[in-house]
Specification:
Blueprint: H1 2-6, E1 17-20, H2 26-38, E2 41-46, H3 53-61, E3 65-69, H4 75-84, E4 92-95, H5 108-112, H6 124-141, H7 143-147, E5 153-157, H8 174-194, E6 200-205, E7 208-210, E8 222-224, H9 225-237, E9 247-249
Helix pairs in contact: 2-9, 4-6, 6-8
């Protein structure tokens, strides 16, 4: 049956489905690996010109992984993938793709470009388009797929940087924080509007996760992928409509706004 699903010759509603953006590394790749191991039909998206090695290897290991190109800043690519998957219900949509830093953490300019006095204003549009507008467009475009599914769940990977009420002493990251605040508001408004469709929308602060980009970094409070992602998956498994519109961490605790 699964082979037939992947070839498009069977009813894809026969298994749970998840679509994950930014799947070639970090949190997105870990989600893809773990949902694939569960036997879910995984649509792992990326923005590279060729299939990244990480996803090629994952699709070779699991026949239930479909690798698709979708740059979250390209409305045309979002529309094209939605059309390609028009008969596929999407149980869980994970808006994960995001820009954390415009440059290497080893480069002092990476931080100075987002600190007042040396702000690089050209960064605003890329951050907002990737981290906020892209997820909103994807959520809206894939509404028919969500409505046709059983679980009807939208997940946005946000950040505690998207919190206004708590004093954040970490310097800089103006555009990153602003984009995550915008993402939270987009998802909060979507949660209200989509209640009538039975669609659950939640945001996660995944923790300060050690990803490939931060593999050699040592910061207080860092956690590993194998703590963050399984934790979020357990929370996702138990979501109800009462949770829609909430901002949670990887253990399910409500986060301040």
């Amino acid at each position: 049956m699964l082979a037939a699903i992947l070839c498009g010759t069977a009813n894809v509603a026969a298994t749970e489905t998840v679509l994950i953006t930014g799947s070639n590394s970090g949190i997105g790749l870990e989600f893809s690996k773990r949902y694939a191991a569960r036997g879910w039909l995984v649509f792992a998206t990326h923005r590279r010109d060729t299939i990244p090695d990480s996803l090629r290897q994952l699709s070779e290991r699991y026949e239930n992984v479909r690798v698709e190109r979708m740059d979250v800043t390209s409305f045309d690519e979002i529309d094209a993938l939605a059309e390609k998957l028009k008969d596929v219900p999407i149980d869980v949509l994970i808006n994960n793709a995001a820009i954390l830093s415009a440059g290497s953490f080893d480069d002092p300019l990476t931080f100075s470009r987002q600190i007042i006095g040396t702000l690089d204003y050209s960064l605003f549009d890329p951050y907002m388009h990737t981290n906020a507008l892209g997820p909103l467009k994807i959520t809206e475009t894939f509404l028919p797929h969500l409505r046709a599914s059983e679980l009807k769940t939208v997940v946005a990977i946000s950040s505690d940087g998207g919190t206004i009420s708590v004093w954040d002493e970490r310097p800089g990251f103006y555009y990153y924080a602003a984009s995550k605040i915008a993402l939270n508001m987009f998802m909060k408004r979507s949660a209200w509007d989509l209640r009538k469709d039975g669609i659950i929308v939640v945001m996660f602060h995944p923790g300060f996760v050690r990803t490939e980009k931060l593999k050699d970094a040592e910061f207080e409070g860092m956690i590993e992928l194998d703590e963050s992602v399984p934790g979020m998956m357990r929370v996702i498994d138990n979501l109800t409509m009462e949770d829609t519109g909430t901002f949670l961490n990887h253990t399910g605790e409500t986060q301040p706004w």
